[in-house]
Amino acid sequence: MDAHAWQVFAQSFDDILIPGLCMTIPLTIAAFSLCMVVALLLAMVQYAKVPGLRQFARFYIWIFRGTPLLVQLFIVYYGLPRVGIVIHEVVAAIAVIGLNYAAYCAETIRAALESVPVGQVEAGYCTGLSYIQIMRRIVLPQAMKTAFPPLSNSLISMLKDTSLAANITVMEMLQKTKQIVARTYEPLVLYIEVGLIYLAFSTILTWLQGRGERRLSTHRVKRRRNENADA
Asked: Which of 37, 133, 171, 227 is 20 to 30 Å from the Cα of 77, by its Cα?
C-alpha cells in the first residue's frame, strides 16, 4: 500500500470503530436477546408436543431457515411499506436478524432439551414437582449448559451478519466504511480494516465463549465428585 492508503487506514479507524461500538454491538445484543426469547418458546412448544403450536413452530422454522436473511430484510424494510407498514431501519434489523436466528437456535435448544434423560423428568414427578418446576429446576439448567457452545457460535455469526443491515441503510460499521470508500476511493484498505475490526470483536466473543465453557466444565466435574461422595 502507498502512503495515501496508510493515511486513510489510520484516519478512518475511529470513524469505523465508533459505529461498531455504538451500533453493531448494541444491534447484536438486542437481536440476540430477541432470538433467545423466541427460540426458547419455540423449543419448549416442540419439546412439550403442544398440538397446533408445535406445527406452527415447525412452520416458522421452515420459513426462516429456508429463505435468505437478506431477502427477509428487504421484505420487511422495503416491502412492507407497500402495504402501509413502515418500520425504522434499526428496528427492522433487530427484528429480522433476531427472528431469523431464533429458527436455528430453537433447534439447538430443542436438541439440548431432548438430551436430558427422561428418567430425570419422571423422578421429578415422583417427588411431587409440577411440569413447570421440573423444566425450571431440572431440564432447562442441564439443557442450556449443553446448548451453550452452539448458541455462542450463533452469537458470533450474528455479530458478523449485522453487516447485512447496511443494505437497509443502518449506519453500522460496513455502511460507514462504504461512505468512506466513496469519498477516498480506497476500497481495499478500508474493507480490510473493517474486516479486522469484525475479527477483533469475534475474537473477544470466542475468548468469552472459551471461559464460559471451561467454567461449565469445572462445575460438571465438581458436581460429579459431590455425587460420588454422596454415593
From this structure: 37
